[in-house]
């Protein structure tokens, strides 16, 4: 496919891909944004409905508490409960007959009867009924209940079958009304509030109902309960608002089991407590808070939903805001169709622009291709158009022009090069002949020099070159012969000196080995001495520490003894105070005894006066008798207390004597502790002085041991170095022995010896060259510090043992000494 065809197709494909990707990305982004907006709107709507319901329920709570605290409510309950007891054995049947069975108003309008006009109950009923009825209609409640403390429903506005029943034992003991009553009546909180979930209530023909209850308190006593029955009409009104939720969206209130508490506005039937929503989001919202996602199956569709929890009193509901997925996706599809239509128009426009643009590019390129074909065939008379263009096509035309110029220049150079090639060939032949002659001479010189170097490599120092070489190469022969002569003399001198070095190294190595052995023996003796001193120091240190601890404990014992004396003195004073207090209490008991005696007399007189009063004074006579008995019990108790206090005084006196004896014994113990502390302190001071002396001795021995160890290591290192020097001398002798020198090389050696700066001298006892010392005379080797033991050497006592004897005398105790083990050779003191 030609470029003129490819460019329009590529432009169309490029536009199609770019626009398709843009449309797809836009649709995906728009879908995400739409989903996010939908969930945000649903969450905001659900939160708004929750706030509306919460305000409505909080208003009911506040109204119930205010109504219960109203004086009119309290008086109504007081009057009704007072007349309740006079309704007979079966108040519920009597009230049903009066206000339900004989009520002329139809069912649902029984509340219009204000009074049956028969007894006090009817009068009390009439006083409160008008107010409660107005309050019910004003607030939109279904019914208002007054319940006494025993659980009797003594009053209702609507007069249904629960009127007059007992919520503890009656047929409605398991209803929500009974549950809120039980919670309120059993709570000790005067501000308790109870409510129940919506459920089917039989007295109201099975309609959904929820109950709230608060206590009625008079004179700080709970006399009954005020309860409201709430229908879900007002809640339905709150959740019937579907503004902003499209054609399929709504908000509903569900209980913990998922059943609808509010009726759905999108269905014709009543869904309350009949339709349920099943979704894991409900459990998540009930346990952890807000949740959002999708709900399947509700109203036969898939919905986007947001759920928020609603807690009111004892009940936890969930507010759900939802909208159908089809309605949401319909907006995405509509937006997508619009984007696709706009993209098709852009693709067509882009394709047309691509065709026009490709034609403007391919026409000059086709003309340029034809010109290049002619140039390739050798035709340089071509017409190039577009040399003045500044784009890539102009660059291509100018490049073809360069190729045409190059073709013309190439033809001119070919003719000129042919002429030069003939002259160059003759000069090349002459240079090759000269180079062959020089190469032959160089090859000969290399062969002669290589043969001599081969002999030199084999150790022959007599391999001089006698045959002269041609030209400048003969200088190389002379230099090689001179170097070989000097090397031969040097090797001869080195060979002689190596033997002398080897002899002297052997002597030094023997002396060094003897020194190393004796230094090791001395170091071992010092190590044993140092170890023994450390053991003695450890023993003295432990003794000193124990003496110091004993001294410190003696001081503490003395201090505790002094404190014990003070405590004993305080105890004696305290017992003296207790004894004084017992005397004061005895005086008070005597006064109480006298008061009891006088009270007994007064009670006796009161009893006589009451007897004189006859029937009217019987009650006072009983009181006087009780007072008399109380006075007698007080007198008896006073006597018992006095006896106990007397006995306590005697025991306290005995305790004082014992405590004083304890103080005397502790004083004697304190004196003895002081004497013990002085002795222990003296022992601790002596141990410290001994420890200080041993520390100085140990430091001196340690320094001696370090010096000896350093000497031993130096001797060992010197011995090792001398052994290595001996081996190196032997190796050097073997290496020098590989060279072959001339018989007359001694003259060369003598010539070298005359030069002092070379470091060689002649030895009269040997014909070979020996290493010479510098200009200064050579001193003999120093005598070793440790001389070998001779046969007549005497044994000298060890200085370490003398030091140990001195330590033993300083401590006042004899230390066990180990016998010297006699070795194969004696050793000298050094």
Automatic annotation (TrEMBL):
User: Mind listing the UniProt keywords for this protein, alphabetically?
Assistant: Cell membrane, Chemotaxis, Membrane, Transducer, Transmembrane, Transmembrane helix
Domain (Methyl-accepting transducer) spans 497-726
> Which Pfam families does UniProt cross-reference here?
dCache_1, HAMP, MCPsignal
User: Where is the HAMP domain positioned along the sequence?
Assistant: 359-412, 440-492
This protein's GO CC annotations: plasma membrane
**Signal peptide span per the entry?**
none
How is the protein disposed in the membrane?
Answer: Multi-pass membrane protein
Q: Where is the composition biased (Basic and acidic residues)?
A: 414-435, 817-830
Asked whether the UniProt record includes Cell membrane among its keywords, one would answer yes
Q: Can you say what this protein is called? A: Methyl-accepting chemotaxis protein
Source species of the chain: Rhizobium glycinendophyticum
């Amino acid at each position: 496919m030609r470029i003129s065809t490819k460019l329009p197709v590529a432009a169309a494909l490029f536009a199609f891909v770019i626009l398709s990707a843009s449309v797809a990305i836009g649709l995906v982004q728009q879908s995400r944004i739409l989903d996010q907006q939908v969930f945000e709107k649903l969450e905001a709507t659900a939160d708004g409905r929750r706030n509306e319901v919460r305000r409505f329920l909080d208003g009911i709570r506040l109204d119930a508490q205010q109504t219960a605290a109203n004086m009119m409510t309290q008086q109504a309950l007081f009057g009704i409960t007072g007349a309740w007891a006079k309704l007979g054995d079966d108040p519920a049947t009597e009230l049903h007959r009066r206000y339900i069975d004989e009520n002329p108003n139809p069912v649902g309008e029984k509340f219009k009867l204000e009074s049956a006009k028969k007894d006090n109950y009817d009068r009390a009923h009439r006083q409160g009924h008008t107010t409660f009825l107005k309050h019910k209609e004003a607030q939109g409640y279904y019914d208002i209940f007054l319940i006494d403390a025993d659980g009797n429903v003594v009053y209702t506005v609507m007069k249904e079958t629960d009127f007059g029943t007992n919520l503890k034992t009656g047929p409605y003991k398991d209803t929500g009304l009974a549950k809120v009553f039980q919670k309120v009546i059993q709570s000790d909180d005067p501000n308790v509030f109870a409510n129940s979930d919506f459920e089917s209530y039989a007295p109201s023909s099975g309609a959904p109902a929820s109950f709230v209850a608060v206590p009625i308190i008079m004179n700080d006593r709970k006399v009954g309960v005020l309860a409201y029955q709430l229908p879900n009409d007002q809640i339905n009104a709150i959740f019937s608002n579907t503004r902003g939720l499209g054609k399929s969206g709504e908000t509903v209130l569900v209980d913990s089991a998922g059943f609808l508490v509010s009726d759905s506005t999108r269905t014709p039937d009543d869904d309350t407590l009949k339709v349920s929503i099943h979704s894991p989001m409900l459990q998540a919202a009930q346990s952890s808070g807000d949740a959002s996602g999708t709900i399947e199956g509700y109203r036969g569709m898939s919905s986007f939903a947001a759920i928020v929890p609603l807690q009111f009193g004892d009940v936890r509901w969930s507010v759900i805001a939802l909208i159908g997925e089809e309605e949401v996706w319909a907006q995405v599809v509509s937006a997508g169709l619009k984007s696709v239509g706009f993209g098709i128009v852009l693709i067509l426009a882009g394709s047309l622009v691509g065709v026009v643009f490709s034609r403007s590019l391919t026409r000059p390129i086709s003309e340029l291709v034809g010109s290049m074909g002619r140039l390739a065939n050798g035709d340089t008379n071509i017409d190039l158009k577009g040399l003045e263009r500044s784009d890539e096509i102009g660059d291509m035309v100018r490049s073809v022009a360069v190729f045409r110029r190059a073709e013309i220049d190439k033809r001119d150079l070919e003719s000129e090069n042919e002429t030069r090639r003939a002259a160059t060939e003759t000069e090349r032949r002459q240079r090759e002949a000269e180079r062959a002659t020089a190469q032959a001479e160089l090859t000969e010189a290399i062969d002669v020099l290589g043969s001599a170097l081969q002999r030199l490599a084999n150790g022959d120092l007599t391999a001089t070159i006698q045959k002269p070489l041609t030209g400048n190469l003969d200088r190389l022969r002379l230099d090689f012969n001179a170097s070989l002569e000097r090397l031969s003399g040097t090797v001869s001198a080195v060979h002689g000196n190596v033997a002398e070095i080897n002899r002297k190294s052997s002597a030094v190595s023997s002396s060094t080995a003897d020194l190393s052995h004796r230094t090791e023996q001395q170091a071992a003796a010092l190590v044993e001495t140092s170890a023994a001193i450390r053991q003695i120091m450890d023993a003295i240190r432990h003794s000193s520490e124990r003496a110091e601890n004993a001294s410190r404990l003696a001081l503490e014992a003395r201090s505790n003894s002094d404190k014990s004396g003070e405590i004993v003195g305080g105890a004696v004073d305290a017992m003296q105070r207790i004894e004084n207090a017992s005397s004061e209490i005895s005086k008070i008991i005597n006064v109480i005894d006298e008061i009891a005696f006088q009270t007994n007399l007064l009670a006796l007189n009161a009893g006589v006066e009451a007897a004189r009063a006859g029937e009217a004074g019987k009650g006072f006579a009983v009181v006087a008798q009780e007072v008399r008995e109380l006075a007698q019990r007080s007198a008896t108790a006073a006597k018992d207390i006095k006896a106990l206090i007397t006995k306590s005084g005697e025991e306290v006196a005995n305790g004082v004597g014992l405590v004083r004896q304890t103080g005397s014994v502790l004083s004697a113990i304190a004196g003895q502790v002081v004497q013990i502390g002085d002795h222990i302190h003296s022992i601790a001071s002596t141990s410290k002085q001994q420890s200080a002396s041993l520390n100085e001795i140990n430091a001196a021995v340690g320094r001696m041991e370090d010096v000896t160890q350093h000497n031993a290591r130096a001797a060992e290192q010197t011995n090792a170095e001398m052994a290595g020097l001996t081996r190196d001398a032997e190796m050097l002798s073997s290496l020098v022995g590989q060279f072959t020198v001339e018989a007359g090389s001694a003259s060369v050696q003598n010539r070298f010896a005359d030069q002092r700066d070379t470091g060689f001298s002649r030895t009269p006892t040997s014909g070979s060259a020996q290493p010479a010392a510098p200009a200064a005379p050579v001193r003999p080797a120093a005598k070793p510090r440790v001389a070998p033991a001779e046969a007549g050497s005497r044994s000298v006592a060890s200085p370490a043992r003398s030091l140990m004897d001195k330590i033993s005398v300083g401590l006042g105790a004899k230390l066990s000494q180990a016998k010297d083990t006699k070795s194969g050779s004696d050793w000298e003191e050094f």
